[in-house]
Design a protein that fits this description.
The structure is a single chain. With 121 residues, the chain is of the alpha/beta class. It has a single domain, classed as Response regulator (Rossmann fold, 3-Layer(aba) Sandwich), CATH 3.40.50. It has 5 helices and 5 strands. A 5-stranded parallel beta sheet has the order 2-1-3-4-5, sandwiched between helices. The protein is globular and about 30 Å long.
Length: 121
């Protein structure tokens, strides 16, 4: 299956994603903030990044922009996964280069479907 990087500052959310993904055969990498997420993505080259928005330091929009503009990581699809449910947030996320946008809490089937969709191109 896929190697998926979860970038989220909430240990509870990170563990929920890890549990869902590992149960479905995916390998999970984690980072607690945007800067660590960008560094880990550059080093590990995961298949997909799940990116929270509201984090200390480099937020998810900024981290997504860095990943999608960097020739080393621009091929990695980023799915924003956040509690921010405004249309303006969705539009801004897409403008930063995100391939997908999901609102927490995310149903397991929805998450897996979105991952499969962005990996298929």
């Amino acid at each position: 299956m896929a190697r998926i990087l979860v970038v989220d500052d909430s240990p509870t959310e990170t563990e929920a994603f890890r549990s869902m993904l590992e149960k479905n055969g995916h390998e999970v990498l984690t980072a607690e903030n945007g800067a660590d997420g960008v560094a880990l993505a550059r080093k590990e080259k995961p298949d997909v990044v799940l990116m929270d928005i509201v984090m200390p330091g480099l937020n998810g929009f900024q981290a997504t922009r860095q990943l999608t503009k960097d020739p080393e990581t621009q091929h990695i699809p980023v799915i924003i996964v956040t509690t921010k449910d405004q249309e303006t947030d969705r539009v801004w996320g897409k403008r930063q280069g995100a391939s997908g946008y999901l609102v927490k809490p995310v149903a397991e089937a929805t998450l897996l479907s979105e991952i499969a969709s962005v990996m298929a191109g």
